[in-house]
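S1.2 Input.
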Amino acid sequence: MEVLKQTGKQDEVKNGLDISICIYDDKSKVLEYSGAHNPIYIIKEGSLVELKADRMPVGIHDNYQNPFTYQRYNLNDGDRLFLFSDGYADQFGGEFNKKFRYSRLQEVLTESSKLPINEQKLYIEKCFNDWIGNNEQVDDVLILGIQF
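S1.3 Output.
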C-alpha cells in the first residue's frame, strides 16, 4: 500500500496487484506460497493440484486488513509447478468466441504433463494460438513452468 501510495481515503484509486509468491528450499524440497488472486498449479504424477490464492489483491480493498494465507507443499522429483498471469484463461476464442477459462488451462497442463517440458511448452503455445484464431490477444500471457 505504501508503494502504491494508498491511504484508504474514499476518493483514491484502488489499484491492486494480483500475484503469486513462492519460495523453494531445494534441500527440504518444500515450496512456500501465498497468492493474491493467482493460484498455482502443480502436476504430480499426472494429476493437477491447485494451491488456491486468496480472493483479494495486494493493496487497498474491502478486506485489506486480513493477512494472506501462507501455504507449504512438499515437492518430489518430476513434479511440475506452474505460475501464470490471467491472460491465457481470459483470452477470447474458440468456436463461440468465449473465454478459454482456468478449467481448460488445467486440462491443457494435465494432458501435456507426460511430454518433456520443452515439448509441453510448444503444446501450450499451440493450444493458445489455435484458440485465439483470428482474434486479437486481449492481455499479457505468461506461464512459467518449472520441473523439479
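S1.4 Remarks. Helices lie at 102-111, 117-132.
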